[in-house]
Design brief:
binds pyridoxal-5'-phosphate; ten-stranded mixed β-sheet; 3 domains; TIM Barrel; 21 strands
Length: 454
């Protein structure tokens, strides 16, 4: 493990970004994403390396295009993610679908169409295998199988996808049935897949690698690819540790070389990072709207205009994200590294959002209790920047709670230009699919009324 080199966005960039899109908005640093991407692609390898970006981390069209243009393929987790990536210009033969869905009806037809165009299907349950077997057998389409390894590791129990607590994949104890089914249907299982969790311990990842290699040796003689998933931990807060990707890469290469010496087989490795590529490149820009306290024995609150509806990770996992305070004139007042011009006293404060939830705070413990941050008191109108928000923030947020509108997204280009890559949702889009309880109000009139509220 190495200590993070967490990057910080400059106050001048913050000011330009909010001038373009207002607050709250997300800002992504293209240069940082490109650097992470290049690091991934240049990892040590034994017999080939494929990197699939786990697009659930951040499926914005611009991000998908940026990563796939640099040579990454995709891990997609639903048919709609596959369709969305296709709309972004990515061909199906660059995607592997790993999903809890069991497609039927027209979805099933779409899946078959995608597979004919080269999408790799990763069966995640015996039922999925039974459903796709006749089609794949007829068309001689090989499959991947996601193995439930029985042990995993994650940032919290909710992101540990390898333990018996999680329902992902075909459990090791059911693999004999899967192998028999595949044999009966004459289906080649050419890829074995596993994902132990997100933000967990790299030693568990490496332990699972050995477990999977034994499995490949004993039970999957025809498999040519091992997909080890993603999950590499990053350090969002200064002082946190993150994975040493290069060390993990060379230990993985050594294991694959050992496997080759033992078996004569040259396994291709695939990995599926999401967080590692984009988390540290994202910022949520919010504006301080109010300051309150709950008395001398209570808490001091800094209210901002973007909370859990923009980043729900604190509520889901007790995650911590770094803050910076930028004055309304564009000066760095303070950041989590202790930089900035503020000489005022630092005091414990809770940064709260604007949703009607006591727990709508940017600092929550795993038990759901408030965790104040020691920092100078900002002024109303200052900007509070939440770092480490490039992954699972925009994509996972309950953005329409309290009828707030989904926040826009911006990209900071390597030449310093800032471009809008997703507009703010409109009120019209918020209510556009609703139908009135009372008859007689034509849709057109509703649309006009919504447009007038803007
Ligand atoms: C199957 C699979 N692969 C890859 C990932 C990416 O994980 P991370 O963003 O932690 O790298 C996930 C995350 O949930 C996943 O479910």
């Amino acid at each position: 493990m190495i200590v993070s080199d967490s990057v910080a966005v400059s106050p001048e960039v913050v000011l330009r970004a909010v001038e373009i899109a207002g607050t709250p908005c997300y800002l992504y640093d293209e240069g940082e994403i490109a650097r992470k991407c290049d690091r991934m692609l240049s990892l040590p390898r034994a017999f080939g390396l494929g990197v699939r970006y786990a697009m659930k981390a951040n499926p914005s069209m611009a991000i998908l295009q940026l990563l796939t243009d640099r040579g990454l393929d995709l891990d997609v987790s639903s048919l709609n993610e596959a369709r969305r990536a296709r709309l972004a210009g990515v061909s199906y033969d660059r995607m592997m679908l790993t999903s809890q869905e069991v497609p039927y009806g027209s979805d099933r037809n779409d899946l078959e169409h995608m597979m004919l165009e080269g999408l790799k299907y990763n069966v995640c349950s015996l039922r999925q295998l039974r459903l796709v077997s006749p089609f794949c057998s007829r068309r001689k389409i090989p499959l991947s199988i996601r193995v439930h390894p029985g042990e995993g590791s994650g940032e919290s129990s909710a992101t540990d996808t390898g333990s018996d607590y999680s329902s992902f994949g075909v459990h090791m104890t059911d693999l004999d049935i899967a192998l028999e089914l595949a044999l009966e249907s004459d289906i080649a299982l050419d890829t074995v897949h596993v994902h132990v969790g997100s933000g967990g311990d790299p030693e568990v990842w490496l332990g699972t690698l050995e477990k999977m290699l034994s499995l490949l040796e004993d039970s999957f003689p025809c498999a040519h690819t091992l997909n080890m998933g993603g999950g590499f931990p990053v350090a969002r807060m200064p002082g946190e540790s993150m994975v040493d990707m290069e060390e993990l890469g060379s230990r993985t290469r050594d294991s694959l070389l050992d496997f080759h010496r033992r078996t004569g087989r040259r396994l291709r490795l695939e990995v599926e990072p999401g967080t590692f590529l984009v988390a540290g490149a994202g910022y949520l820009l919010t504006r301080v709207s109010d300051l309150k306290s709950t008395g001398p024995d209570g808490y001091r609150f800094v209210l901002v205009d973007g909370g859990m509806e923009c980043n729900v990770r604190p509520q889901l996992y007790g995650s911590r994200h770094p803050f910076s305070i930028v004055s309304s004139q564009g000066r760095l007042v303070w950041n989590e590294r202790g930089e900035g011009e503020s000489h005022s006293r630092t005091v414990p404060q809770v940064v709260a959002g604007r949703c009607c939830e006591t727990g709508d705070c940017h600092g929550l413990g795993r038990d759901g209790n408030l965790v104040p941050r020691v920092m100078p008191e900002p002024r109303v109108g200052d900007y509070l920047v939440v770092g480490g928000t490039g992954a699972y923030c925009s994509s996972m947020a309950p953005f329409n709670y309290n009828s707030f509108l989904q926040a826009p997204e911006l990209l900071l280009r390597p030449d310093g230009a800032i471009v809008l890559v997703r507009k703010r949702q409109s009120l019209l889009q918020l209510v556009g699919n609703e139908l009135p309880y009372r008859s007689g109000v034509p849709r057109q009139e509703l649309n006009e009324a919504a447009a007038m509220c803007l």
